[in-house]
Specification:
Length: 556
């Protein structure tokens, strides 16, 4: 970012901007970045967004890594979704112990990296600092779905966006021919791409799209040492996936496809898929909706997105054909000083914008085709988290049209109408994400109260000397992580049958206990089933009521 501060570029009329005009958007971008980090730290202070057992599973993996007890390749209980978050969080939890705040400090750092990378990437692709400020300001906001994707350490989502942005930024520097550190850049690109292959396939459209630009612009360089370095780096990054596959003979791709909705259970119809994938999904996944639902007026983005995809693709394709003439000049290649270098940077920027648009379209299509879009559209809209990486490409044509209007260069009636519409869409985008952020912040007190009730539950179990319990899926690993494995929980379903234990040793430990307890949230089907058991056999269990929970102790 300091390089961006030093550079002075020519504005659209050929004049050289004053130093203050260069510094102001940079300073405002720093303010926006700090505000985004501060907002997320404030949420963490309120234990928001609410945690769950999946996040606790990643926390348990981090604890095991910190203790040298286990080094899992995959999210416990499945053969897909790499545990990069657990390895990143392990040093923090080694200091803090089993702490939700400690676990999420890593995800806040990943968000900050994403916002900073988005600033630099937008400058490379467009050369416009004020537009880069708009992108950073939008990323500073965060609806319920957005902050869940960015803060909850549930596997994959917090790291995919910064990785995709870093891949695009590295590709720009490599394709535009920035001198120096060529092999280190190729190495970094390969390592990140390999890591993402291991972590989560949802980012693959971006890896493939950006990779295609690399091949198109640098295929001669790839035939030499750069290609060898890149190939080795990809293999090193994907080593956990490849090593596990070779050791077990398992194909992780089959499990990933099943998790994406390819299973036979409860298939979703096309009407439901199209509704969830093309209407609800974009508005939820890109941060325009209130917690847990989308009001009708908030669905406007779903209508705007297909138009933006087409317009952005056409604009990027036209710029690519004309040699990137629309590029303002704030990218890396422009610093080389020659018109040829600036034109090369413009062509690379146009190609990468086209790649980001194609990746966004592919992500949206893949999600719509999945069963998850039809069955669980609200929760599974997290699969669209990478769409935020494409914001600079999607909004750039709007910004240019609005900028022409503001500069008085849209004198023809048709262009004036386009400029007014573009400005209205940009304003609605900021207003919509701002309102959704306001609604998300309002859920923080409820999240803090829920976490306080859970803390009381853990304290009560410790006081009673309860070390082994049965509970529901969304209770067990959260309880085990919060207690630092002092209390071990095995999963049962609502009929008291064995459920899905992600970490098998917990079930064995509870089964070996002489008198395990039962825990169920108040008002849950499991609590109702345990109450029936208590009525059928009076005196078999002692009931203790805790705020939000019912604890059933076996009588010895």
């Amino acid at each position: 970012m300091t390089a961006g501060v030093r550079q002075e570029t020519h504005d659209a009329r050929g004049g050289r901007p004053a130093a203050g005009r260069v510094r102001l958007p940079v300073l405002l971008a720093v303010v926006a970045l700090l505000a985004g980090v501060g907002y997320r730290l404030a949420l963490l202070a309120f234990d928001a967004p609410a945690t769950n057992s999946d996040e606790a599973t990643m926390g348990l993996a981090a604890l095991h890594i910190a203790r040298g007890q286990d080094f899992p390749v995959w999210f416990y209980g499945q053969s897909y979704m790499g545990t990069l978050e657990a390895y990143l969080a392990a040093p923090v939890l080694a200091l803090t112990g089993p702490s939700l705040f400690g676990l999420r400090l890593v995800t806040v750092a990943l968000y900050a990296a994403f916002a900073l990378l988005a600033w630099r990437l937008t400058l490379r692709l467009t050369g416009d600092r004020w537009f880069a400020l708009l992108v950073v300001a939008l990323l500073a906001l965060g609806s319920d779905r957005i902050v869940k994707n960015q803060l909850i350490a549930g596997g994959g989502y917090p790291e995919m966006s910064p990785a995709a942005a870093a891949l695009a930024l590295l590709a720009y520097d490599l394709c535009a021919g920035r001198p120096g550190r060529r092999l280190p850049r190729w190495t970094a690109w390969g390592l990140l791409a390999g890591l993402m292959l291991w972590v989560d396939p949802l980012v693959l459209p971006y890896v493939l799209g950006v990779g295609a630009v690399l091949v198109a612009f640098r295929w001669r360089e790839l035939r030499g040492r750069a290609g060898a370095v890149l190939g080795i780096a990809v293999l090193v990054g994907a080593a956990p996936l490849l090593g596990h596959s070779l050791a077990t003979g398992r194909n992780p791709l089959a499990a990933v496809l099943a998790a994406a909705g390819g299973g036979a259970d409860a298939p979703a119809g096309w009407a439901d898929r199209l509704h969830g994938g093309l209407l609800l999904g974009p508005s939820l996944g890109m941060g325009f909706c209130s917690p847990g639902n989308c009001a009708t007026w908030q669905l406007w983005w779903a209508l705007a997105l297909p138009v933006l995809l087409v317009v952005a693709a056409v604009a990027a394709g036209r710029a690519l054909r004309t040699g990137g003439a629309e590029h303002v000049g704030g990218g890396g290649a422009a610093r080389a000083g020659s018109a040829g270098d600036a034109a090369a940077g413009g062509r690379v920027g146009a190609a990468l914008r086209l790649a980001l648009v194609a990746a966004a379209a592919a992500t949206l299509v893949a999600y719509t085709l999945s069963g998850s879009a039809g069955r669980t559209p609200v929760e599974s809209s997290r699969y669209l988290s990478c769409l935020l990486v494409s914001l600079p490409a999607l909004l750039w044509p709007l910004w240019r049209a609005a900028h022409r209007l503001a500069d008085g260069r849209s004198r023809r009636p048709g262009r004036r109408v386009v400029g007014i519409l573009a400005a209205a869409v940009l304003a609605a985008t900021v207003a919509g994400t701002g309102y959704a952020t306001y609604r998300a912040a309002g859920t923080a007190p409820a999240a803090r109260a829920a976490e306080a009730r859970h803390t009381e539950l853990v304290g009560t179990l410790r006081e009673l000397g309860v070390r082994h319990v049965y509970g529901g899926y969304w209770t067990c690993n959260r309880l085990t992580f919060a207690s630092g494995e002092e209390v071990v929980c095995a999963v049962v379903d609502d009929e008291l049958r064995p459920g899905h234990d992600r970490y098998a040793p917990y079930r064995r430990a509870v089964a070996a206990s002489a008198a395990p307890a039962w825990i169920a949230p108040t008002g849950s089907p499991l609590a109702a089933r345990l109450d029936e058991r208590l009525r059928a056999a009076p005196g078999s269990l002692d009931l203790i009521t805790i705020d939000g929970y019912r604890l059933y102790l076996a009588r010895s």
